[in-house]
């Protein structure tokens, strides 16, 4: 099934306005879905990342997309060399992120949540550099290390937490706030959580 979200509006001049040439186009947002075969089709693993934002968002979106592509290439190579994975893996690069995560909602509405063993979310700016902003200045000032607001969310699933906690405990990945999916993290992770799907999300 295919879903298309179309937003309409009017062009307004201002300090953050888009060029008139862009304003005349009808915006669209799409999902891109890929799949790798697995032996046991009674449980799926879904790996997802959103592709868009309201404004230019290289530092926000690019790290999640890079991790997403790396995982897809790594698992595809494993399938070529060793055959099907233990479980099917679906890759969902979703649109409509800023519209209440519409892309992920649409994808999950097309599958049976009971089949999804876990959803892994590669979120916003998960390995972005940290910046400071001083009062009275507009340009951010780089600082050493990663930014300080990354959050790890793992649903109430003891087995999933047992698997996911050790890799993210390494000093190179700190600081990392560990919060339940439904608290202070209203993005893509909440969509899967509300569907009753176990999840690991870092953003």
Overview of this protein structure:
This protein has helices at residues 20-23, 58-82, 102-109, 158-168, 188-194; strands spanning 5-6, 28-29, 32-36, 44-50, 89-94, 116-122, 129-132, 141-146, 151-154, 177-178, 199-202. It is α/β, with parallel strands linked by helices. The strands form 3 sheets. It has a 7-stranded mixed beta sheet with strand order 3-5-4-6-11-9-10, with helices on both faces. Strands 1-2 form a two-stranded antiparallel ribbon. Strands 7-8 form a two-stranded antiparallel ribbon. Strand 9 (151-154), helix 4 and strand 10 (177-178) form a beta-alpha-beta unit. The chain is globular. The two termini are 29 Å apart. The mean pLDDT is 80.
Q: Layout of helices and strands, plus pairs?
A:
Blueprint lengths: L4 E2 L13 H4 L4 E2 L2 E5 L7 E7 L7 H25 L6 E6 L7 H8 L6 E7 L6 E4 L8 E6 L4 E4 L3 H11 L8 E2 L9 H7 L4 E4 L1
Parallel strand pairs: 4-5, 4-6, 6-11, 9-10
Antiparallel strand pairs: 1-2, 3-5, 7-8, 9-11
Unreliable sequence segments: none
Mean pLDDT: 80
Number of helices: 5
Distance between the termini: 29 Å
What is the helix content?
25-40%
Give the CA-based shape: globular
How many β-strand runs?
11
List keywords for this structure.
203 residues; alpha/beta; 7-stranded mixed β-sheet; two-stranded antiparallel sheet; 5 helices; 11 strands
Quickly describe the structure.
By secondary structure, this protein is an alpha/beta fold. The chain has helices at residues 20-23, 58-82, 102-109, 158-168, 188-194, and strands at 5-6, 28-29, 32-36, 44-50, 89-94, 116-122, 129-132, 141-146, 151-154, 177-178, 199-202.
């Amino acid at each position: 099934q295919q879903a298309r979200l179309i937003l309409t509006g009017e062009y307004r001049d201002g300090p953050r306005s888009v060029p008139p040439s862009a304003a005349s186009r009808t915006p669209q947002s799409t999902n891109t879905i890929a799949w790798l075969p697995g032996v046991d089709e009674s449980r799926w693993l879904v790996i997802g990342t959103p592709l868009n934002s309201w404004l230019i968002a290289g530092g926000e979106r690019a790290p999640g997309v890079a991790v997403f592509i790396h995982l897809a290439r790594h698992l595809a190579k494993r399938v070529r060399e060793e055959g099907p994975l233990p479980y099917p893996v679906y890759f969902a690069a979703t649109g409509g992120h800023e519209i209440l995560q519409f892309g992920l909602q649409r994808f999950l509405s097309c599958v049976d949540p009971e089949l999804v063993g876990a959803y892994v979310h590669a979120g916003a700016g998960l390995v972005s550099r940290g910046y400071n902003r001083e009062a009275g200045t507009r340009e951010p000032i780089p600082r050493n290390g990663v930014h300080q607001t990354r959050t790890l969310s793992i649903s109430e699933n003891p087995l999933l937490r047992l698997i996911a906690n050790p890799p993210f405990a390494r000093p190179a990945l700190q600081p990392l706030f560990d919060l339940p999916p439904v608290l202070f993290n209203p993005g893509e992770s909440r969509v899967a959580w509300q569907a009753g799907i176990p999840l690991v999300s870092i953003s």
